[in-house]
Amino acid sequence: MTATTRRSHAERSATTRAALLDATLDCLAERGYSGTTTVEVVKRAGVSRGAQVHHFPTKAELISAALAHLLAVQRQRFADEFAALPPRERTEEAGLRLLWSVFDGKSYRALMQLAVASFADPELKAAVAEVFRALERTVVEGYAEHFPVPARRDGAERDLLFAFRAMESAALYRELGLDDEAEHTVAVLGTLTELRDLAIGLGLDTAAAPRRRRPDPTVP
Fold first, then answer.
1. How far apart are CA 64 and CA 79, in angstroms?
2. By CB atoms within 10 Å of each CB, which of 64, 96, 124, 146 scores lowest?
3. Thinking of the domain 3-201, which architecture would CATH place it in?
């Protein structure tokens, strides 16, 4: 077998895997975990059942690979969204807006479906939890790289993680249809900004007020 033939085979294999994983995310986002069957994934991917079994013999292996693929997709999306903003516009508010934009799309909807399904599946729960942890690390690292000035503010990482988790909750409410879609983004970002301003006003923000020293229990 020539090097060109081996490369072509590897490329075809990679294309088939990608099609199966993308189809899995589509299926999860639209039909949920229970509705994501290997038969449905094969149909959506446009590949043979044999190709699916070759790459992912079981649904569990397919879902596991889809989680890794989902993480890679979301990481790239974070990086692309952050890097696309001109340096002169990289403010704290702009960072929040970009962060919210990545909660849209099939990848995040698929992750929410898996999160719900994981409540009754300890093994899946551990895998989903690791994806959430990895996404948080990606957000913190990406923010520090592309928004260096606001990221250096004392307490920035804590505030960023708070915003990330608040947006996760808001995204869930959006998916449930409990918020008006047209006003949703404005409401979410407005609330986060108000909370930030309130913290500063109350002297709770570490950048606006000196940090209080905790009393030393050893000193009478």
1. 23
2. 64
3. Orthogonal Bundle (1.10)
